Amino acid sequence: MAIDQVFEALASRPRREILAYLSATEMTAGEIASRFDMSAPSISRHLSVLEAAGLVSSEKRGQFVVYQLNRDSLVNTLTGFAFEICPVGKPLKRESRRIATKKTTG
Asked: What strands, in cross-sheet order, belong to the sheet with 56-61?
């Protein structure tokens, strides 16, 4: 993983928002896409950049691809901290926690 790839990944607001959504739960590509007003191929490209930078990982489960935050990444640790204090990221992280709760209770 090149540090330039990490900075490139973090330079995009949609990619930072995707990281916020993944901060508390794993999500399918479709679940992620449903939260954005952009095409599925655009979301797929954003996810590819995040994966290439080592910030997220994916796993094929049946017909779905599930994405999760790469918790081993120092950048994710720092990003998690930033989401706690960022006025934009904090509400997204709260929504991610709500999604995780629904998945475990529903």
From this structure: 27-28, 64-69, 56-61
Q: Give 2: exposed, middle or buried? Use CB within 10 Å, 0-12, 13-18, 19+.
A: exposed
The CA distances from residue 42 to 15, 39, 51, 76, in Å, are 11, 5, 14, 22
How many other β-carbons are positioned within 10 Å of the β-carbon of residue 21?
Answer: 21
User: In degrees rounded to 5, what are phi and psi of residue 24?
Assistant: -120, -5
Mean pLDDT rounded to a whole number for the chain: 86
Please write the tens of the pLDDT for every residue from 83-103.
677 777 778 878 888 888 888
pTM: 0.73
| Residue carrying structure tokens 């797929």 | 44
In this structure, which amino acid lies at residue 14?
P
- Specify the pLDDT at position 39: 92
Cβ neighbors of 54 (< 8 A, separation 6 or more) are 1, 5, 6, 70, 73, 75
